[in-house]
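Ex. 9. Protein: D-isomer specific 2-hydroxyacid dehydrogenase NAD-binding protein.
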Amino acid sequence: MKIGFFEITETEKKDYFIQNLPGYELIFIDKPLTEESLPQILDFDIISVFVNCQVTPKVITAFPRLRLITTRSTGFDNIDLPFAKSKNIMVANVPAYGSHTVAEYTFGLMLALSRKIYQAAYRVKVGEDFTLQGLRGFDLCSKTLGVIGTGKIGSNVVSIAQGFNMKVLAFDAFPNEELARTHNFLYTSLEELLKTADVVTLHTPYNEQTHHLINRQNIFLMKKGSLLINTARGQVVETEALFQALIQNHLGGAALDVLEEEKELKDEMEVLAKNTQSAEELKTILHNHILINLPQVIITPHMAFYSKEAEFAILETTEENIKSFLQGNPKNIVH
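Predicted structure tokens for D-isomer specific 2-hydroxyacid dehydrogenase NAD-binding protein:
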């Protein structure tokens, strides 16, 4: 049984799998798995991938013995599920890791925006400037928080909001009325949430239904001066719409742990050299660059999940996914 782990560089993670999956041939490959980076070894029975891997039909077809793809993440939009299913290949994820981790990070971003903590720290560190000019923020207490997506992360965000004495409105394609009752919040339409909330935070998965959920048709429904937080997926927000809402001073600020086209932004020189991006994609990359430099925008490198506890949960669940599959009782299968 041969298992390939892609996009895994840290020695401690490799050691974890070596220690907990004895008796199997484990191969560790630092680079993400893509069509351009197929390994020389192709006879894997199981592959473990991460967020920058692109598991397309061509990639799946390249592994003739493949039986399981297990991603070390909750999201799996980088894996072609229908094609995997057509080849009788199971796909598993890590459904529960980091739900508290991401919720806590969301409030870190929220406080950094509402109290202008980043600008204040930067001013003191770089210019030794202790003046308060331009640094007045606002309290979260008694404000209305709009939570889009009330799964594990979203429900934890609701719980933390209660500690700040915030009012909570929520939107979800599948409302959980029992959760609303026990957590004392109301479900409403997306339009009403955007019109009412002082802060909007996104916690939806990415799929066809959530692509550009926040877009040029609805972003200006948001209250003037309100804040947008995105720790979900970059493609949930239309970058052009967000850019316009910010430069027109309609939104008070945005905190983004994810960006649309973020992979291309990281590898921009390679992208430009290949000249394979569409005009819209290149425009998005440009706007991402501009967003990074706007003072009312905080951008972090897709790290909301990145805590010691969450990382251990990822490793533990991935181990469980592999073992349960090999024992004939697969867990966390997403199709």
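Check your answer against this statement. The chain has two domains: 2-97+308-326, 99-299.
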